[in-house]
Write a structure and sequence with these properties.
The protein has about 220 residues and is mainly α. It has one domain. About 75% of the residues lie in helices and about 0% in strands.
Length: about 220
């Protein structure tokens, strides 16, 4: 319970924690952020790490002078692109074996199934669209590898998705994060970002449940 409470506090007060990291570690904060984004996009066991909200808050901290926003974009783009590609090759070589084990707490088959539904609806563009959908973002490159999507095709989608995702949220945080209203209500803004990011998944779940329920 304490772990969950601590994680919620981390997400809702990302600005405070990130500013503390900048003050305590200086330039090493780029490596810390690189690691978080790489793991969130590159490892199927860490889909719970902050993504959208972290990018926005990092941009807001950069606007306050804590980091250089262009260096931030470059570092996080590389992290996202490298994570995507790592996940693709893990899925290609180890995916079937990893998900053949039933009852795994780390590798949730429901997440895999949800991502596969995304592929059925959006095709290869899922790699780009999934960037803005938590959990699906983590599993999309993995499923692409499992499904043997050709690597050149995957790379093109991955590159475009990484640029759009990192640029849109990081620079949005940079340009809007210093507005008095945003700074004074940043926790509410973070909640809004999280809510918007999970909304597509909620809608898809409700549609699937409605379609599978018996009609009287």
């Amino acid at each position: 319970m304490e772990l969950i409470t601590g994680f919620i506090d981390l997400v809702l007060h990302l600005d405070v924690h990130l500013q503390a990291l900048v003050q305590n570690y200086g330039g090493w904060v780029y490596l810390i952020l690189f690691t978080i984004i790489f793991c969130e996009t590159g490892l199927v066991v860490t889909p719970f790490l902050p993504g959208d909200s972290l990018l926005f808050v990092a941009g807001a901290v950069a606007a306050g002078g804590g980091m250089d926003v262009h260096a931030l974009f470059a570092v996080l783009f590389v992290a996202s692109f490298a994570g995507d590609n790592t996940n693709y090759w893990i899925g290609r070589f180890a995916g079937p074996r990893l998900f053949s084990r039933k009852g795994s707490r780390l590798l949730n088959p429901a997440h895999l199934e949800r991502t596969q539904h995304f592929y059925e609806k959006h095709g290869g563009k899922t790699i780009v669209i999934a960037r803005f959908v938590p959990i699906v973002r983590t599993f999309a490159p993995f499923v692409a590898g499992m499904g043997r999507m050709t690597y050149p095709r995957f790379v093109s989608y991955s590159f475009a998705g990484s640029v759009l995702w990192i640029a849109s949220l990081t620079y949005a945080g940079y340009f809007f994060g210093n507005l008095p209203f945003v700074r004074q209500n940043l926790s509410l803004v973070i909640i809004g970002i999280v809510a918007l990011s999970i909304m597509p998944g909620v809608v898809e779940y409700l549609r699937a449940r409605a379609a599978s329920s018996p009609r009287g």
